[in-house]
């Protein structure tokens, strides 16, 4: 069981909101930041929130604050109509399906052009920086490559799918009963 699986089980609403992203992901990040007493909220991504929880979970006071934050967030999401964490996950899945449906219906070239530009920019930046043709500070190079890598991953996930479906199949197989938890 990976740490991400532990976070999903211990904090199902926060991790589902982090996976959904957008305004709900920002809410989850703010709640985690407030619970652990951080000066600023963690990055409102699944990795950002998981990393903040990983750092804080070793401290009993912060762990208790995170558990309380999860319970409060669950109540807040129930008021918005999300009775379970799987409702949030279903919203994320429907959002992806809607975006792909739009692509099929509209046949717009802009996502392809933008996607190609992002991936090409990533490959060009990596080549120029690693070959020594572009002189940049090492921190800037790391930040630039990390940012472009993350955006390239989003483009590739859009066109080739993400590992979310694979994660679900793995969970079903691990449970042995044909039902995800």
Describe the overall structure.
It is a single chain. By secondary structure, the chain is an all-alpha fold. The protein folds into two domains: 3-85, no CATH class; 108-175. Helix content is 78%, strand content 0%. It has nine helices and no strands. Helix 2 (12-20) runs antiparallel to helix 4, helix 2 (12-20) runs parallel beside helix 6 and helix 7 (110-131) packs antiparallel against helix 8 (138-160). The protein is flat and about 50 Å long. The mean pLDDT is 77.
Taken from the alpha-carbon principal axes, the silhouette is: flat
Question: DSSP strand (E) fraction?
Answer: under 5%
Structural category = mainly alpha
- The tally of beta strands, per DSSP, is 0
Order of helices and strands: HHHHHHHHH
Q: What is the residue-mean pLDDT, rounded to a whole number?
A: 77
Using the CA coordinates, give the radius of gyration.
19 Å
Number of domains: 2
Main sheet specs: none
Give the number of helices: 9
Question: Any low-confidence stretches, pLDDT <50, length ≥5?
Answer: none
């Amino acid at each position: 069981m990976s740490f991400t699986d532990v976070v999903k089980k211990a904090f199902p609403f926060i991790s589902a909101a982090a996976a959904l992203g957008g305004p709900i992901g920002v809410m989850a990040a703010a709640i985690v930041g407030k619970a652990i007493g951080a000066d600023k909220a963690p990055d409102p991504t699944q990795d950002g929130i998981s990393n903040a929880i990983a750092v804080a979970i070793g401290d009993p006071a912060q762990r208790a604050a995170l558990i309380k934050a999860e319970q409060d967030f669950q109540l807040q999401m129930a008021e918005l109509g999300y009775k379970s964490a799987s409702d949030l996950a279903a919203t994320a899945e429907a959002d992806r399906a809607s975006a792909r449906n739009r692509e099929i219906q509209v046949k717009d070239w802009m996502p392809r052009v933008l996607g190609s530009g992002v991936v090409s920019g990533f490959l060009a930046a990596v080549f120029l920086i690693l070959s020594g043709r572009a002189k940049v500070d090492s921190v800037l190079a790391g930040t630039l490559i990390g940012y472009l890598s993350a955006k390239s991953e989003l483009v590739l996930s859009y066109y080739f799918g993400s590992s979310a479906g694979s994660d679900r199949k793995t969970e079903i197989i691990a449970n042995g009963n044909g039902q995800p938890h």
